[in-house]
Specification:
260 residues, alpha+beta, Triger factor/SurA peptide-binding fold, 4-stranded mixed β-sheet
């Protein structure tokens, strides 16, 4: 088995790389019903009211596309399942980090980029008959997804060797150090470079992790909490896992472990 394959198998999921850095940037969770902020990423804030206004339209769109209604049943106190709220916050957390990363690299998001991103999202939110429900989502959620998708596209086309800095490589190593079997940073550094070059998704996550070091991240604890194993906002311990998917970095084809 090649050296690169060994390292790919060590970094089981891009989200594992993000976990420790996000924890360092994470301000905390609050269960206060009077706190006006559902999610804050740097200077960007999502108010509790705006977030609550996003949930029902998303649930309606989800059902219109054939989603499982049992996943949307409110809890006994009438609130939405934390699995759903955590998922929606994760979408916006990743989008905001992508926007910040693009700004840090002086990548300008143009109206054409936004139009292309909206077209992508229209397709993603389309049913088998071709009808899109993206326009039925709350306007604030649409805006975040459009901006985040445009930023991700710019980053995907712009990231390269210049972004694989010693600092970024050190972050990857430090976040996964216990998994390298005692090997030093110098011993795995060249292999990490090869892994990041060969896996654009992993490089993207590494860039997000680097970006997260410079911003404050806050989530209202009523909607989820940051999981130290995945770096995502998830349901509290003992609850059903958030409905997320992860990309396997194992080039043998094994699936990455699910969040939860």
């Amino acid at each position: 088995m090649s050296r690169v394959t060994d390292l790919v198998k060590t970094l089981r999921t891009p989200l594992a790389l993000l976990a420790l850095v996000l924890l360092a940037a994470f301000v905390g969770s609050s269960c206060s019903s009077v706190d006006p902020v559902a999610l804050q990423v740097g200077q960007w804030q999502l108010s509790n009211k705006d977030f609550e206004d996003q949930i029902q339209p998303y649930a309606d769109a989800y059902l219109a596309l054939g989603g499982d209604e049992t996943q949307l049943h409110p809890t006994t106190d009438g609130t939405w399942p934390t699995a759903l709220t955590a998922f929606l916050l994760n979408e916006q957390l990743t989008s905001q980090l992508a926007v910040i990363a693009a700004q840090d690299r002086e990548l300008e998001i143009t109206d054409d980029d936004r139009a292309d991103a909206r077209s992508q999202l229209e397709q993603q939110f389309s049913g088998s008959d071709g009808t899109s429900v993206f326009g039925d989502l709350a306007g604030s959620f649409q805006d975040v997804l459009v901006e985040g998708t445009a930023a991700r596209t710019l980053l995907a086309s712009g990231l390269g060797d210049d972004d694989i800095t010693d600092d970024l490589l050190r972050d990857v190593y430090d976040a996964n150090q216990e998994q390298f079997g005692g090997r030093s940073f110098d011993e795995v550094k060249d292999g990490l470079v090869e892994v990041l070059r060969a896996n654009p998704d992993l490089l993207f996550q590494a860039v997000l992790a680097e970006t997260a070091q410079g911003v404050e991240i806050y989530v209202d604890g009523r909607y989820g909490q940051l999981d130290p194993l995945t770096g995502q906002i998830v349901t509290p311990s003992g609850a059903d896992p958030a409905p997320t998917t992860s990309t396997s970095l194992d080039d043998t084809g094994d699936s990455a472990p699910a969040a939860g």
